[in-house]
Amino acid sequence: MPVDAALVRTFHALADPLRLEILGRLAAAPSGVTELARGLPITRQGTAKHLAVLREAGLVTAASEGRESVYRVQAATASAAARWLEAASAAWDTQLGLLKAAAEASEPPAR
Q1: Is residue 97 part of a domain?
Q2: Could you tell me if residue 77 is inside a domain?
Q3: How far apart are CA 74 and CA 11, in angstroms?
Q4: Which of 47, 21, 20 has the alpha carbon at shortest distance from 32?
Q5: Which of 20, 21, 78, 100 is 20 to 30 A from 111, comparing alpha carbons?
Q6: Closest Cα partner for 13 from 74, 62, 69, 68?
Q7: Domain CATH number, residue 43
Q8: Confidence of residue 96 (pLDDT cuts 50, 70, 90)
């Protein structure tokens, strides 16, 4: 399974619990920084920094609406990460199945 820089950035961005929280909120509805910062244990500036990481990873987009940028989930990037995880899971399932078969084949006969 090839791993490129974009995939690494995606998983890095998803590795932080606050960024996952922000992404979940954006999946429910597009929002600005001020609205997203409400209820988070960080400042508005901290929220903006997390959004910058998500944006650099391609997980969110921003568009100016009035005086604030509104952020939206970029589903294509998340879909690419999901496809990689599905392929990794299938590979592990295959390897574990082969290991199980080998272990069962080498068991000594029951007495």
Answers
A1: yes
A2: yes
A3: 14
A4: 47
A5: 100
A6: 74
A7: 1.10.10.10
A8: confident
Please say whether the beta carbons of 99 and 105 come within 8 A. no
Q: Are strands 31-32 and 60-65 parallel, antiparallel or unpaired?
A: unpaired
- Domain containing residue 50: 5-105
The answer to whether residue 38 is domain-embedded is yes
**Quick check: 70 and 25 in contact, CB under 8 A?**
no
User: Averaging pLDDT over each range in 9-18, 70-79, 89-98, which range is the top one?
Assistant: 9-18
- Specify the amino acid at residue 106: S
Please state the domain count of the chain: 1
Q: What confidence tens digit (pLDDT) does each residue in 31-83 have? A: 999 999 998 999 999 999 999 999 999 999 999 998 899 999 998 877 887 88
Q: Is 50 helix (H, G, I), strand (E, B) or coil?
A: helix
Q: Let me know if residue 110 belongs to a domain.
A: no
Please, which residues have CB within 8 angstroms of residue 31's CB and are 6 or more apart in sequence? 25, 70, 71
* Angstrom distance (rounded) from CA 59 to CA 26: 10
Amino acid making up residue 108:
P
